[in-house]
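re: that chain from earlier
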Amino acid sequence: MNKRSFIQAVVVGCFGAMSGGLAWAQAFPSKPLRVVVPQPPGGGFDVVGRLLADRLGKAMGQSAVVENRPGSGTLVGTDLVAKAPADGYTLLVGSVSNLALNPGLYPNIPYDSLRDFEPVGLAVAYSYTLVARKDLPFANLRELIAYAKANPKKLTYASGGSGSGQHVLAAALWNLAGVEAVHVPYRGAQAAYQDLLGGRVDVFFDLSPTARPQVESGNLRALVVSGSSRLPFHPEVPTILETGVANLDLESWFGLFVPSKTPADVQERLRSELARIITAPDLVETFRKAGGKPLALSAEQARSLVKRDVDRWSKITRDLGIKAE
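^ sequence. v structure.
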């Protein structure tokens, strides 16, 4: 091969490689997407995951299959995505629970929430509401705290299980307020509500959309909400911050994540499509009607929020000595 032929071959080869790489990038996705929900069907993870997966699949021109992978709380499904091929085809429904709380709840967690995952986008956040049995003789959080200080270990609080968001949030509040309360863990919120309605336990921090029907029916009283602002459907209920009892706030955000080594161009494609989806008026209205706060964050804002909550809540759970069941 002479010099001119060699140069031509090199140029053709380079353009071929470039066009091949471009074709690969343009072809994504060329097969169905998999959206992993690390909890059983029916909960907050599952509802948000299915809403996003359905719309994302349509926007990407491929089906997006929801795969429920519960186990060890949310560890199994979350770790599955952390170790999945970083090609953009496997996404995780991530939340405060599996990314921010788990690192402090489990001594040997198999993934690193910040190193192993990259947020595609956060879609919605839900506050918690502290509800009390209706015959509890306290009008607000300050009165409840005053009673608990004067009567150590007399106040009882329910949760859907040790290490749940309901448990961690309540334990953090009691700790910051300087009171001792007795934790009564149940297997899920339904069992907790049965005893709360029956007067066998005093208070319960649950996700606001789930607590809402019980409050509106008059079965329970709402004392405070955990978000940074009041809720539109309970405008009379103050935030923890407003009461001055503790410098504490928590909103359980939900969104989609991919393994951090996913190619940048694939991440950007997913991110741009999801950004359009989560700001669509119909989905925004769906989240609001369910009691959620729709989120519209930039990639940097999403990373910052996730890092803040991972750093803060993993430390809180360790400091309080809270362990998962």
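Residues 14-25 have pLDDT under 50 and may be disordered.
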